[in-house]
Write a structure and sequence with these properties.
- With 182 residues, the chain is an alpha/beta fold.
- The protein has a single domain, classed as Flavodoxin domain (Rossmann fold, 3-Layer(aba) Sandwich).
- It is 38% helix and 21% strand.
- It has 5 helices and 8 strands.
- The termini are close together.
């Protein structure tokens, strides 16, 4: 099995107006695409319009979301820190699928006033319950130093190496876990 067969979704974990997750996600994708070791795609929660878990009116959106998650071998979550945790939209999306997450790997890129580290730690606990192996390297972006006026993403050069280290781990773990799912 070659790593070129891996399909990795870069999940944008915020749906708020004026969010910065698309800027961060696109930057991660640009770095990832230069590697040539997998197929990377942006998966934007805003495109799925997921209802709150348990709302029967959104069965089609939930089915489309589950199908997308099932098609991926691994993930990179781009998450903001809201109130010391992940966004409600991301938690709802994680809860809206179940077995589709199992035995896959994920990296986390977080941002916030403290680099989004508390959100990343909360996300790790949720991923563990969903049988997603999260990797160790975690690029943490500061709203104070990696964003101009808190809205324009201008990452420090040092983050490039962190993203590549994280992606190395996501690819290795995704490849190993694909054999568990086969």
């Amino acid at each position: 099995m070659t790593t070129a067969q891996m399909n990795i979704g870069i999940i944008l974990g915020s749906t708020r107006p004026a969010r910065v997750s698309p800027q961060v996600g696109n930057w991660v994708k640009e770095l990832a695409d230069k590697r040539g070791d997998a197929t990377y795609e942006i998966v934007d929660l805003a495109d799925y319009n997921l209802p709150f878990l348990g709302d029967p009116s959104g069965e089609q959106q939930v089915a489309a979301w589950a199908k997308k998650i099932a098609s991926l071998d691994g993930f990179v979550f781009v998450t903001a820190e809201y109130n010391h945790s992940i966004t409600g939209a991301l938690k709802n999306a994680l809860d809206s699928a179940r077995a589709e997450w199992y035995n896959k790997a994920a990296g986390i890129v977080s941002y916030g006033s403290s680099g989004g580290t508390r959100a990343a730690e909360h996300l790790r606990g949720i991923l563990g319950e969903l049988q997603v192996a999260d990797v160790r390297t975690h690029p943490a972006l500061s709203m104070f130093t990696d964003f101009e006026n808190y809205t324009i993403f201008k990452p420090a050069e040092l983050h490039i190496a962190h993203v590549n280290d994280m992606l190395n781990q996501v690819i290795r773990w995704s490849t190993a876990l694909k054999s568990v799912r086969s």
